[in-house]
Amino acid sequence: MWKVLKRRWKYLSAKLSGRFEETADPKVQLEQAMVEAQDQHRRLVEQAASVIANQKQTELRLNRSMQELERVSGTTRQALTMADEAARRGDAAKATEYNQTAQAFANRLIATEKQVEDLKTMHLQAAQAADQARAAVAQNASLLQQKLAERQKLLSQLDQTRMQEQLNTAMASLSQTVDQDVPTFDDVRAKIEAQYAKALGTAELSGQSVESRMLEVEQAGVTSEAQMRIEQMRQQMGLPAGGQDNAGQLAASSRQALGGDSQPAAALGTGAVAANAQAGAGAGAAAQTAGPPATPAEGTGPAPASQTEG
């Protein structure tokens, strides 16, 4: 039973951990990793400082021991010198005392030399440890700088990833239906194109109807009548005839204004204009043969409009 519960607990822990990793914000996790790296570097610096401090302390103790060794060695030599002088003077008691004092200083000298040797060994080890600590701090500082630079790169990449995800979502919303009541972009475009095609077809059928042809014929008649009136006025004023080019241009302009493209109506209008133009040209030739019109006598007004047109 205990094994089953333990296995169940491990399964739930792994499942919750996996779900947490899926839903966790990478930006927050990156900040946590950087904080942990900075704390680790701070602890390493503190440990390196302790090692270097130990090396400095050992160096100070070694210097003091060296000074003590020199002092004890000098004192021992001084005691031996004084003992030798007392022996030369024949003072055996003083010589014995100085020899005992020299013996005591010699014992201290031996102990101090041993301490100096131990301190030298400790100082060498402490110096090596301090060098390793300095190298470790420098290496870890370089790694921390690299992580800081990589952090900026990862943050920029994370922002680009989120922007791309939003862009993908927006592009997918253009081609996929969000709800049943919301049409897609393709559906709206197809509907607009269908309405536009229907409007074009209706306009094309309206342009080919009988009413449009009748209107074109009527406009052609009006144009022909206007051309005849212009030719009559030219004859009365003694100006040369305009010819068939003006009539053709008027007929073309009327067709363009109406927007018609029916071949029978255009042929009918062109034939009427040509016939009227030929009639106008014949009348102009007859007028030139008969001679110029009579000039009104002085004191008389211009001829009435009805007679001029007749």
Give a description of the structure.
With 310 residues, the chain is mostly helical. The chain is built from eight helices and no strands. It has two domains: 141 residues, Helix Hairpins; 81 residues, no CATH class. Helix 2 packs antiparallel against helix 3 and helix 6 runs antiparallel to helix 7. The C terminus is likely disordered.
Which keywords apply here?
310 residues; 8 helices; single chain; mainly alpha; Helix Hairpins
Report the strand count.
Answer: 0
Mean pLDDT: 74
Radius of gyration: 62 Å
**Helicity range:** over 70%
Q: Biggest β-sheet: count, sense, barrel?
A: none
Order of helices and strands: HHHHHHHH
Share of residues in strands:
under 5%
Our measurement of the CA-to-CA distance between the termini, rounded to an integer number of angstroms, reads 131 Å
Shape: elongated
Level-2 CATH architecture of the largest domain? Orthogonal Bundle
> Number of folding domains?
2
CATH topology of the largest domain: Helix Hairpins
CATH hierarchy class name of the largest domain? Mainly Alpha
Instruction: Output the number of helix runs.
Output: 8
Class derived from helix and strand content: mainly alpha
Short characterization:
The chain has 310 residues and is mainly α. It is built from eight helices and no strands. 87% of the residues lie in helices and 0% in strands.
List the helices and strands and how they pair.
Blueprint: H1 2-23, H2 26-89, H3 92-175, H4 185-207, H5 210-237, H6 244-258, H7 263-290, H8 305-309
Helix pairs in contact: 2-3, 5-6, 5-7, 6-7
